[in-house]
Here is the input.
Amino acid sequence: MDFYQRLMNLDRRWVYLVVGIAVIIPVLNPFRVPVYVTPEVEVIHDFVKNLKPGDILFLAIDYDPQAMAEVHPMAKAIMRQCFAKNVKLIISALSQNGPGMAEQLISEVAKEFNKKSGIDYCYLGYKPYPGIVILAMGQNFRIPFPTDYYGVPLDSLPMMRDVRNYDDVKAVIDISATNAADFWIINANGRYDVKLALGVTGVMTANYYPYLQSGQIFGLMGGLKGASEYEALSKQGDRAIKMMSIQTTAHIVIVLFIVAGNIGYFMSRKKKKQ
Amino acid sequence: MRREIPIAICFLAGIFYTLELFIPHRQVLSIFETVRQWAQILIAFAYVLAIANILRVNFHAIQKNQRDWPYKVVLIVSLFFMITLGIFFGGIGEGTIFDWVYYHAQYPLQSTMFALLAFFIASAAFRAFRIRTLEAALLAVTAVLVMIGRVPVGEELWNNFPDFTEWIMNVPQLAGKRAIMIGAALGAISTALKVLTGLERTYLGGE
Here is the structure.
């Protein structure tokens, strides 16, 4: 077996080793990479930036721990930006393991900005089957969530007294790693004309571009790159920006492997012909 | 009658929810809301049914000493462990044992599993993106361009690289995606109509 054939049939363990090294190096020797901002992220940032103190934004946390590295920084940056501007938040978690994610986020960021449950934010928690819950919230948040996550009736929360349904929030931003994003588009935007933006994982991003172009969502943050763009714009945190160096080296290594695999393929084919 | 009654229920329920879109009256909407709450209760029961099903399938595998049966023991023990913690040891809120196990076991385990994808994707990309045909060439070149364009190195190579990647995402990618979505939606509408009119009966079992 010559060099090119060996290259073409490289054992997958070598691939794993090289990817592992490529991921570890930027962790041990962090370096910053520039962040290019896309219009679909900028529009979300500008929307939140233009909210006034006292306005209410609905933040849907629909992801599990597995997608945390990509989408958690988005949720954190938005929450920080809102609390810094005294924008109130209604938060839901419609993915099975989402309540823990949302709780961790709230306890960290609310403490940082000294925000109180029921006054500055209302955490609704989890109810099964997002499609039905989203539809029901369109009539009244109290139908699926008579109490908040901590068991306090919504009517007794000061910030929820005059809040009935989506008409009383400026927009919904869904940070999602599940098909809950589809339910938000179909049931919240489609049925109630809710102003909606999405933050999704990298692999999901391509699925939602059609909704962006059709105007069903007004903004889209895709994966770690989207999160880093939002952090760069809002200047709230830099976790995703730091992690972009890891993603950059990983992408370069994968591209190099694709090129190497094809060089091996073409050269061994050429040799066979000769 | 064993078939006609479920078909009639399915037809009426389907028509009922279709009408909801055309009758925005408050009284009518409250009826729909009640039915929706019934659906949510049914879904909650479906979780119980799912647990029963998991137990049935996995106990059977353990009894028969099937391949990987120890993992099934771990699954069942973990299931009851978490249920017990949630119900009998202070609930699921912040600071509870359930919460601790969630953050110190499930959380890192799920993150690790997802992180492993990077290695599999790299290995799969290395093998799958061989330029054997014109279609494979298009796929490989587009993948490489988007991968470079989605990280800052793209902009370093060429100022307009990010814009070019955006164009790929917004024009050819979107056109293909939209075609697939429209096709799938038309298929879903036709299947829904077949179910409502009783032409499609596989959900009843058999046939």
User: Anything to note?
Assistant: The first helix of chain B runs from residue 4 to 20. Chain B is about 80% helix and 0% strand. Chain B has a mean pLDDT of 88.
